[in-house]
Write a structure and sequence with these properties.
heterodimer, A: about 220 residues, Rossmann fold, 6-stranded parallel β-sheet, 4-stranded mixed β-sheet, 6 helices, 12 strands, about 30% helix, globular, B: about 475 residues, alpha/beta, about 50% helix
Chain lengths: ~220, ~475
């Protein structure tokens, strides 16, 4: 196998064409929106790909969540007790009998069957958002693993308005991604979809059928 | 020669198949329109194309160093890197991994490199089931057909054809030709497979040398499934897919989906930098990256043809190609069809095999104009037309000179001699004008739908002189 490696590299080195030295890179103008406009753009772009976006002040997001869960008849909602939303969610439903919340701290393998076939939805936090493209950015953690935002038919994501960046370029530069890439970084823009049959859009192929985002703001 | 006959026969069949003609026309018109609407600001588009071309040129200019850096970073992160000179080697690497895990089912996300490897065929001979999970690829696997477009593989199939196929393969599921219903049925069938599969395979859209990150662009979520749920993930890629820095990714991610389908971004952009770490609850325990050469390092040697390797596989060139739109993807007989396929495939497999493909173009220029990384496809098509008949055997392209026709060569030699000798040229033109009545009225296929060209009684030179125009 090391033969293949050295042969390929040797061929590339021997045949290396004389490429012009890189000049100044062409500049792409970046958007410079304020917080309010970032939220507006985020919402507009997300809704254009059929995600459900709610913008709400901090004090009312739990009430909104309770309403949405009831409306969507989600009877099992996967959440992370030790994640950033854990405590708030735990207290959101008064009696355990009414609460749809379920938590699993095992590895995927230990409860795969249930996750694949018996969970209605999952709720996660979001690390950041991108206004320009209407994108949620997740860096899944041991508390909120990758499969939460992938396997259940409904994904509810909570996003802090202040975490929305103008562009992806802006985000990776300011947050110094190149120095600390996680196991898996995810950009999510809408529910799962396909246009493989006659270029006709259909939603919910393999990932979530519905993506619901609650953007939490500090304004009243 | 055999290949030539086959290409012409396939093109002819496609041209006479009204279903293919209308399916492609309809789909390509839609994609052209969507792309156009996603770039409302032409100045932004031009800057973005310049930037993305710079990124790809920069990466190619440092390719061996970046591949080493990618390997070092991946290895540090726990991703196992494998190198393959040929598709045979790449297939064996995948097989070895499968065998080591005693795995009998491979679930696949969309990967053109795995098509290039004919991996499904290879593994199935070894008793391993390969299952395509991209909806379009899955439909084609059920139909036993290869993809006809690199982004929308089942674009040649109508809704009714897909419905019929599902009815045959899954008689228990009630018939429906509703796209939502068909999609939901596929979801249920494949969900069980994602759950069961011990190994998942994906392609790679970009590999970042700086961080050792594999990037995947997709809409369906099957790519995330294949790279998240099975305990082992294998990514296969051509060696040219590497970029230098993480900051190279945003411009490429901005231009790729817009050029491909007119989406401002795909549903998922999945960046994988390591296998499951201690304490993490999901994700594969093993991640493998297979780097495939298969002729790419030879393309790399030519100053002009190297531009072929900039390609980010968006498919815009085929969407805008008048030839592709009429004959469809299957007629080309290659993994990658359309204008990019017509320059890439003959270089990989040799002009002796695919020497006809560079001629399957009107050189209208649309492909070069829409290419997000500014590959001068028309110029490269022309260059390969030269390579296929060149005699000196000093180029790097395999099969150069293989399509040389001694008669054609003599005619062009005579043409060039005549144009280099003014007296002979004038004599020839005078003779042709004098004998123009002798020109046949029927010229084979040309005059089936056109009238035969007529030489003018007076040459342009003569007319210009009579008008008193002087040579400047």
């Amino acid at each position: 196998m090391s033969d293949a490696r050295s042969n390929i590299l040797a061929r590339l080195r021997a045949g290396k064409p004389d490429m012009p030295a890189a000049s100044e890179p062409t500049q792409i103008p970046l958007a410079g929106w304020d917080l309010h406009e970032r939220v507006r753009q985020f919402r507009k772009k997300m809704e254009s790909v059929r995600a459900e976006v709610h913008v709400t002040p901090r004090e009312s997001w739990l009430a909104l969540l309770r309403r949405l869960v009831a409306e969507k008849q989600i009877s099992t909602l996967l959440y992370a007790p030790d994640g950033p939303l854990g405590e708030a969610l735990f207290q959101a439903w008064e009696s355990p009998g009414e609460s749809p919340l379920i938590a699993r701290s095992e590895t995927l393998e230990e409860w795969k069957e249930e996750l694949f076939f018996n969970v209605d939805g999952a709720i996660t936090s979001s690390r950041w958002g991108i206004a320009e493209t209407g994108t949620l950015v997740l860096w899944p953690t041991p508390e909120e693993p990758r499969s939460f935002s992938l396997v259940p038919p409904v994904h509810i994501a909570i996003l802090e308005a202040g975490d929305i960046y103008n562009t992806f370029a802006d985000l990776i530069e300011k947050e110094k991604w190149n120095q600390r890439m996680p196991t898996n970084a995810l950009l999510i823009s809408g529910p799962s979809k396909t246009a493989d049959i006659e270029q006709t859009l259909a939603y919910g192929v393999h990932g979530p059928i519905e993506l619901v985002i609650i953007v939490v703001t500090e304004e009243n | 020669m055999q290949q030539r006959v086959e290409f012409h026969a396939r093109a002819d069949r496609a041209l006479h198949n009204p279903q293919i003609r209308s399916n492609f026309r309809y789909a390509m018109d839609g994609l052209i329109d969507k792309r156009k609407r996603s770039f409302p600001d032409l100045d932004e588009l031009n800057r973005l194309r310049l930037r993305c071309a710079e990124i790809r040129v920069n990466a190619l200019s440092k390719l061996p160093e970046l591949l080493e850096q990618l390997e070092a970073c991946c290895t540090k992160n726990g991703i196992q890197v494998h190198w393959a000179e040929t598709v045979g080697e790449a297939n064996r690497i995948v097989l070895d991994i499968m065998n080591r895990h005693n795995a009998k089912l491979l679930i696949k996300g969309k990967s053109m490199v795995s098509e290039e490897m004919e991996l499904n065929h290879y593994l199935e001979q070894q008793g391993i089931e390969c299952l395509e999970s991209d909806l379009g690829e899955y439909i084609l696997q059920l139909a036993g057909e290869p993809p006809s477009h690199i982004v929308a593989p089942a674009i040649h199939k109508s809704r009714q054809q897909v419905a019929q196929l599902f009815k045959e393969k899954f008689p228990d599921i009630p018939y429906s030709d509703d796209v939502d219903r068909l999609t939901r049925n596929a979801r249920h069938i494949l969900r069980r497979k994602f759950y069961e599969a011990p190994v998942g395979l994906s392609g790679v859209n970009f590999a970042v040398a700086e961080t050792g990150t594999i990037c995947l662009v997709e809409n369906e979520g099957n790519g995330r499934m294949c790279t998240t749920i099975p305990p082992v993930h294998i990514a296969v890629t051509g060696i040219e897919k590497v970029v230098e820095k993480l900051s190279d990714i945003p411009p490429l991610l901005s231009i790729l989906p817009r050029s491909a389908t007119g989406q401002h971004i795909t549903t998922y952009f999945n960046m994988i930098t390591s296998p499951r770490k201690p304490g993490e609850k999901d994700g594969p325990d093993e991640v493998h990256l297979v780097l495939l050469d298969n002729g790419r390092s030879r393309i790399y040697e030519d100053q002009e043809l190297i531009a072929t390797l900039r390609c980010i596989r968006c498919g815009a060139c085929m969407n805008h190609c008048p030839v592709y739109t009429r004959i469809g993807g299957h007629a080309y007989g290659t993994t990658i069809p359309g204008p990019i396929g017509s320059i890439l495939e003959p270089q990989k497999a040799g002009l002796d095999r695919y020497g006809d493909l560079p001629t399957a173009s009107t050189l209208c220029g649309a492909c070069g104009e829409v290419c997000p990384v500014r590959i001068p496809i028309p110029a490269l098509l022309n260059r390969l037309r030269f390579e296929r008949v060149r005699q000196d055997h000093t180029g790097v392209t395999r099969g150069q000179g293989s399509q040389r026709d001694p008669w054609e060569a003599r005619i062009w030699k005579g043409w060039s001699w005549m144009h280099a000798n003014p007296a002979i040229y004038r004599l020839g033109i005078g003779l042709a004008a004098g004998l123009r009545w002798m020109l046949p009225k029927r010229l084979g296929a040309w005059t089936r739908v056109r009238s035969a060209p007529r030489l003018a009684a007076k040459s342009l030179h003569k007319l210009a002189r009579e008008k008193g125009l002087d040579h400047e």
